[in-house]
Design brief:
PKS_NRPS_Biosynth_Enz, 14% strand, 13 strands, alpha/beta, Alpha-Beta Plaits
């Protein structure tokens, strides 16, 4: 099945034999837009059909005026180094940045995404109807922040609405990630490695062939409903290494995830986390509250471990990974024995997410271009802040679904593809346009992208 990019957003590309030739190539695109101001779709198709040099630029745009303004500025559109082929990795985020309407644009414009999402909704019965209403309605516009700093910071919080509830938020994120992965696969974008953060490991395991979409969806839904029944907890992202954070935890709070060399997520019962927040504040230790109603990946999940193990044994089929799968529990590649052992998934529920180590394995052993699937840019930020991510690697990691109010799914997805194309992603444009084509692989270069100024702390589970 193929899918066509909606022509409300299109992707202009240009290239040159060397870096010095890029401004002239961009100017030629500007000239064509000026001589034929009727639209960008025809020009975009023409540009994508050409043979291209190793130095590249790309722009996702809605109309001629937007394209002209961006091309004249020219910032952040072009790679600094020539393309060099590399494998593709997909990164699946956890919950924490989901928002109502996050699937609206892709569900409306992309038939493959819509079909995959609808299969998920149908499999979930009444819950699927509830998720459809939440995910595919037009998202609310972002609220304008007030003038004071506190209000501006508060405005940055993700408006999760009903999706803040675990029973809704976790299957919602899985549906969006699975449907996006299916859309990319229909375009020939097949990963050589996958990594998921917390709940995202289920979508990653599905993409790797460990779980069928049906089994993964039923497992995620059952797991989320059972977690919802547990006492509420909380989580904090602390700006300190794990070794420095652990002495603060006391008897009830655990390390939940190690997301960076200087960031550790902790969680536990709500009262214990609140008390820890007071002590950290008094000591001047920076932290941020994570948008989570439970202490994911801590001892608070232990009452479900045996039930989860039994549910998987009786209701799901686990297969050896067909694609490299980074394991949260170990921080390295999942073996066939681990991936097919229900006990691994029970441990995944209660053990910390070793994201820092997992990203290290990805950079060391695969050295990919990477697309983050799921809402927000949490894994993109973590991957870019990893010690192994030097400057040439920054442009090789891109988000595909920006945060609430930051743009449509199609525009974000095209922007990501364009940036990775400038970094060397080999794209079969005919297949992306719905005319058939061949498989797509990934590759590398640097671009004008830079690291985020601060590490992202939104993802919770």
């Amino acid at each position: 099945m193929t899918s066509t990019i909606a022509r409300t957003t299109d992707l202009l590309v240009w290239s040159a034999a060397d870096a010095a030739g890029l401004p002239a190539a961009r100017a030629a695109v500007l000239d064509r837009l000026g001589s034929d101001p009727g639209g960008v779709a025809e020009l975009a198709r023409e540009l994508r059909s050409r043979d291209h040099g190793p130095y590249r630029g790309a722009l996702a745009c809605h109309d001629v005026d937007q394209a002209v303004a961006a091309l004249r500025r020219g910032r952040g559109l072009e790679g600094k180094h020539p393309a060099a082929e590399r494998p593709l990795a997909l990164l699946f985020s956890g919950v924490g940045e989901q928002f109502p309407g996050m699937a609206w644009d892709l569900h409306t414009t992309q038939p493959v995404f819509r079909a995959a999402a609808e299969r998920c909704f149908a499999a979930l019965g009444p819950l699927g109807d509830e998720l459809r209403e939440l995910l595919v309605r037009p998202p609310a516009p972002p609220a304008a922040p007030a003038g004071d700093l506190r209000a501006m910071l508060a405005a940055r919080e993700v408006p999760q609405g009903p999706l803040s509830h675990t029973r809704l938020g976790q299957p919602a994120v899985f549906v969006v990630e699975h449907a996006t992965a299916e859309l990319l696969r229909s375009w020939g974008l097949v990963p050589e490695a996958v990594l998921g953060y917390s709940l995202g490991e289920y979508a990653a395991a599905c993409a790797a062939g460990v779980l069928t979409p049906e089994d993964a969806l039923r497992l995620v839904s059952w797991r989320a409903e059972r977690i919802e029944e547990l006492p509420e907890g909380g989580m904090l992202a602390v700006a300190a290494p794990r070794a420095e954070v652990e002495p603060w935890l006391g008897d009830a709070v655990d390390v939940s995830a190690v997301t960076g060399p200087h960031q550790t997520v902790v969680g536990g019962p709500a009262a214990a986390v609140a008390e820890l927040a007071v002590r950290l504040t008094d000591a001047g230790v920076p932290f941020q509250r994570v948008g989570a109603r439970h202490g994911f990946h801590t001892r608070t999940m232990a009452p479900l471990a045996a039930e989860l193990r039994a549910w998987i044994t009786g209701n799901a089929t686990l297969s050896a990974p067909r694609t490299r799968l980074a394991a949260n529990v170990t921080g390295t590649w999942a073996t066939a024995a681990q991936a097919t052992d229900p006990d691994y998934w029970a441990r995944h529920l209660t053990h910390p997410v070793e994201l820092l180590s997992g990203l290290g394995a990805l950079w060391r052993d695969v050295d990919p271009v990477a697309l983050e699937l799921g809402p927000g840019e949490g894994l993109t930020a973590y991957a870019r802040h990893h010690p192994a991510c030097d400057r040439p690697r920054l442009a090789r990691v891109q988000p595909t679904l920006t945060a609430a109010g930051a743009g449509t799914g199609t525009a974000a997805l095209l922007t990501a593809l364009g940036r990775l194309w400038t970094a060397g992603l080999r794209v079969d444009w005919a297949r992306l346009d719905g005319a058939g084509g061949t498989e797509v692989t990934g590759s590398d270069s640097d671009s004008d992208s830079d690291k985020n100024s601060t590490e992202n702390t939104g993802s919770a589970a």
